[in-house]
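Weekly sync notes, structure subgroup
Attendees: PM, AL, DS (notes)

Item 1: joint prediction request from the bench team. They want all two components modeled as one assembly rather than separately. Inputs as received:
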Amino acid sequence: MKQESDILSKLGKDAGFKVPENYFADFNKKLMESLPEPNITPQLKPSLWLRVRPYVYMAAMFAGIWCTMRIFNDLSGAGSAKMQVQAIVNGLDDEKNIDDLMIYGGVDKYDILTYEDSVDAEQSGIVAIGSDESK
Amino acid sequence: MASTDTYNEEQLIEQLHDPKLCHAAFAKIVEKYSQGIYWQIRRMVFNHDDANDIMQNVFLKAWSNIDNFRGSAKLSTWLYKIAINESITFINKERARNEASTDDDSFLLNNIEADPYFDGDEVQKKLQRAINSLPEKQRLVFNMRYYDEMKYEDISEILGTSVGALKASYHHALKKIETFFEDCD
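Output from the run, pasted for the record:
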């Protein structure tokens, strides 16, 4: 290389620096003797809990979501069930619906009479029990 | 051969993190790198006693920070970085003590005269004066390339400078040294 000029090629790589005899061997020995206790943090193996913890958290999260949805469904389901019962009660009160049931629902007069008789019997029974008690 | 070296270094790094084996592993590292590190420091600070103290600090610092070394860089790169930082810290302290300006490191050359472990002739002293007149970065690049014959890629890793910039630095350093000799003649 032209850049490594005449001056440097004349001088060579010896800079004139020296070290005491056996310097490096002595240095290494002294250094190793003077080292303090190692500052090493032993790498701990993760415990079983640490390893399964993410999965447990994930399962708990899904269970929470499922419970929330279940509760929400039950609440809204209960409300609609009440409304359905009320609609049936209202429907039965209306005679037109009774006619519709007879025409489209396969319910005949005998079924309705049987139903009405059973209701009357129950009502008279309640009254009788009530009258006995009043006596 | 290179793969064997790599394997050994990996093994050494593993052993460094084992409390039972770390002492023996570190002894191997000191044995392998102490000479290279010493000459790097010595060419920066010139005086043997100063170089000895700095090298001791370098290895003590490396030992106390073993836990943080995870092998992302080569061991040699890591140690040379510590050595250069320690040398620069020393020079800055000496500069402050001598009330010298940031671009004047001539006080370091006084160490050569007083050093019993320097037996260079006048021309060698002149070369050291020429090197000492270079800016800090150029001086480092020149020493690593000219004396240690390090690859530009390795110097680049240690100094965190691109290979192109290092080549330019080395070229400028050579020119300045030539000019220094021409001016003195």
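Discussion: The mean pLDDT of chain B is 87.
Action: AL to compare against the crosslinking data before next sync.
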